[in-house]
Amino acid sequence: MAAADKIPVNAQINPANPRVCLFTVGKPLFPGGSFNCPDAERAKGSPLLIALFGLPGIVQVWVADDRLTVEKNSDEPWPILGRRVADTVRTLIRAGVQPLVAPPKQKPGASGLLRRVEEILEREINPRIAAHGGRVDVREVKDGIAYLTMSGGCQGCTAAAMTLRSGVESAILSRVPEIAEIVDVTNHGAGDHPYYKSGQDAKSPFQS
Fold first, then answer.
1. Lowest pLDDT segment from 15-24, 51-60, 144-153
2. What pTM value is reported for the model?
3. Phi-psi region of 32 (alpha: psi -120 to 50; beta: other; left: phi over 0)
4. Could you give the domains of the chain?
5. Does residue 198 contact residue 157 with C-beta atoms inside 8 Å?
6. Cβ–Cβ contacts within 10 Å for residue 136, how many?
7. Cα–Cα distance between 145 and 192 in angstroms, integer?
8. CB contact set of 126 (below 8 Å; sequence gap of 6+)
9. Distance in angstroms (rounded) separating the CA atoms of residues 158 and 164
10. For a Cys-Cys bond, which of 60, 123, 129, 134 suits 153, CB 3.0-4.6 Å?
11. Is residue 89 over pLDDT 80?
């Protein structure tokens, strides 16, 4: 039996969203890094993502170290689709290819909008929400819109929208007037361990 066949791939369906399944692989797929891939267009350059989006029904993939979170929009049950996902992972490992290549960060234009948003997040936002296990990153700035992703304790947190509006959005819009809108493109259904457990207790880190 090939070594790749012995690599365990364990699956766990998200009880809050049965269209989402978390796969834990016995080998890092993206060591020390994470990447949320919301569509096939963003999968370009990464053999694993291309292969997964080639499976019927796959609409979003999030990779973090040895974890693979997959969202589907089909009625095919996870015991069947999950086996295809696991086989895809093992096939790439067997071929010896690098499963995922980190996409290059978008280069800021003349105005440096993306860089300015990044600086605000790193200097003002992330240090504050780090205490709650969260993080916010800017994925893209285009046509006056900043597209953000939330991870860690903010991904799936019931206070995520509150955090975005009460702190993140106001900080960016007030300091980068060229930005007209903030859009959250996080797949909150794939959040593993949100900091806040219930809507009643949810409170943004930016609230006193």
1. 144-153
2. 0.52
3. left
4. 3-95 (3.30.1370.70), 113-190 (3.30.300.130)
5. no
6. 25
7. 28
8. 135, 136
9. 11
10. 134
11. yes
